[in-house]
Amino acid sequence: MRKILFLIVTLFSTISTNAQESKRIVGKVIDEVSGKPLAFAHVGIFNSSYGTITNMNGDFNLIVPAKYNQEKLSASYLGYELKSTLVSSIDADKDLIIELKSTVTQLPELVIRSNEKSIIEEAIDAIPKNHDQRGMQLRAFWRATIRDETEKYVQMTEYAFDMFRHGFIGEEENAMKILRGRVARDTSFFADIGGMQIGVTPPSLFVSSLLKEHPLLDQKILKKHSYKIIDATSYNGRAVFVVGFQPKKKAKGKLFEGKILLDTESLAFVKISYKKLISPENPEKVFNKLSMAAMAVGLGKSTMDKYENELNYQLIEGKWYLSHAKYDINWTMRRAKQGITKPVTFKADFVVTEIEKENIVVPPEEELASKSILERQVTANTNEFWKEYNYLKADNNFEELFQEILNRY
User: What value does the mean pLDDT take over residues 28-40?
Assistant: First the structure.
């Protein structure tokens, strides 16, 4: 009887201890003067990889382990001063409102001439110094939606996962393990396009995290575009160049326009925001000629009509790491013989919530996700999802929309 009682007491003690191991902080990041919410601000433990970002409404939800209790919770946003609060001083029973103050940064305009080594090329050369290229484990969150031409949601996906990145060292392949995930999918919609899965592939996320292999930074692409410092801003108290780029006159092939933000001191990449220039007269094919699965169901004439991507990097102990990526893509799926045309809009957010650089143990192969698109890699369908993992708070009635898709069939 005493042994049983001891076990019960021990069990409750363990539960009580575990409950005290973390603090859930819920809040909002806003502009100090206007009160306007700051979307996609980074909120996390100062000078660490642990954190998340705000949604379109400036809201965030963060689980903070006890080991960070004496550290500072910081909020950062381009063009604003960094603001920090001691974790132990935060009342978890109240929403935390973080007000950020805007800053003004003035730098002289500089045109990067084509006959000089450009500032972008210098930044690319400095990638190994500024951006950690070693192998590491990234814990991340993914949310993606697909809508049809009437704006109705036909697929919604979200999950937490680990990425095991081997970088440029060794011959091991990059790998992923899904920790928790769910998907709601309108099966009749996708049946019309042969049941094909469409989305962003895991390899593209590894390319973004490594940066050096990003196609936008390829020398062939650089030669086709002109670059100019058009503005200056600040990030975490550091001055940042805003470099605009666009195609040169008469340039052909794959062309882009957008902005690249560089830390003025180190020339590290702080942000890359761009879109592909796709003309209706010469649309880009969704599937290449080697995609036999797509050809088999008659999707060979499918096109990409829009591609926009944004990559954001965070400074941690002197190195810059990917913290958040956004995707906004339009496809037109066509099955010519059946006369089926399905325009779709794909949007996704990828958030790195923690990075581990030491003592990395890659799970057995049978536990890893394949290289197919992310929407296939789900493990469960549950509403009680995010009690253990950090995530990007939804900015609409996501749960209601998710359930509506499930209820269709």
Answer: 97
